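User: Please fill in residues for this 210-position structure.
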C-alpha cells in the first residue's frame, strides 16, 4: 500500500437500535408529561356545568350574573332590562260581561218599526168665497183655539173688534171684504193673538183677498 492512500471505510457513526428505541420511549414519556400538565392547567375552564334553561326571569337574571368577567358590561345591561320587565306589572284585563240574551218580547219590539210622528193638520182658518157683488168677497174667519171671547180686528173692521160666534170646536164670523192685502189679529179674552194657520208679517197675520 502506498503511503498517501486513504484507507477505504465508512466514517459515519453507527448507532445501536437499542439507543433509537430508548429515544422514542423518552419522547413518548415527555409528550405524556406535557399533555398532563396542559390538561391540569386548562381543565377547570372546561369543567363548568352547562346552564340549564331558565323558567322565570329571576332565574335568567341569576344565570346571566354568573357569566365571565370579559362580557360583564353586556351582562349588566341584560340584567337591568330583565329586572325592569319583571317589576313592571302587566295591565289588568277586565273581563267583558256577555250581553244578556234578549227575550222574545224585546226581539218582537225591535222588529216592529216605530210609527212616524203625526203631522199636525193644517186647518183652514180663512175661507174666501165670491159674494153677491163683484166688488166684495165673503171672507169667513175661524179661531180653533181656546177662549171665552174671541174677536177679529183689522183695517177692514174699521179698527174695531168684530166678535166671532162659538161653534162646536171653533169660533167663526163672516165679513164682506174688498180684494186686497190686509193685516189682522185675533183678540182672545182681551189678548192679541196671531192666526197660527196664516202667514205673518211685522207681528201681524196676513190676509190676501183676490
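Assistant: Residues filled in for all 210 positions:
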Amino acid at each position: 500500500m502506498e503511503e498517501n492512500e486513504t484507507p477505504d471505510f465508512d466514517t459515519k457513526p453507527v448507532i445501536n437500535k437499542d439507543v433509537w428505541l430508548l429515544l422514542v420511549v423518552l419522547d413518548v414519556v415527555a409528550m405524556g408529561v406535557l399533555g398532563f400538565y396542559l390538561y391540569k392547567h386548562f381543565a377547570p375552564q372546561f369543567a363548568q356545568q352547562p346552564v340549564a334553561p331558565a323558567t322565570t326571569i329571576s332565574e335568567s337574571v341569576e344565570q346571566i350574573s354568573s357569566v365571565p368577567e370579559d362580557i360583564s358590561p353586556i351582562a349588566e345591561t341584560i340584567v337591568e332590562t330583565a329586572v325592569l320587565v319583571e317589576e313592571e306589572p302587566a295591565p289588568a284585563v277586565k273581563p267583558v260581561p256577555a250581553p244578556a240574551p234578549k227575550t222574545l218580547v224585546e226581539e218582537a219590539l225591535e222588529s216592529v218599526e216605530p210609527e212616524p210622528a203625526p203631522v199636525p193638520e193644517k186647518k183652514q182658518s180663512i175661507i174666501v168665497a165670491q159674494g153677491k157683488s163683484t166688488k166684495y168677497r165673503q171672507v169667513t174667519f175661524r179661531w180653533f183655539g181656546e177662549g171665552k171671547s174671541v174677536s177679529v180686528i183689522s183695517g177692514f173692521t174699521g179698527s174695531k173688534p168684530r166678535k166671532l160666534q162659538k161653534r162646536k170646536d171653533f169660533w167663526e164670523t163672516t165679513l164682506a171684504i174688498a180684494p186686497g192685502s190686509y193685516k189682522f189679529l185675533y183678540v182672545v179674552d182681551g189678548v192679541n193673538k196671531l192666526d197660527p194657520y196664516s202667514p205673518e208679517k211685522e207681528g201681524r197675520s196676513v190676509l190676501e183677498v183676490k
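For context: The chain has three domains: 15-48, 57-87, 126-209.
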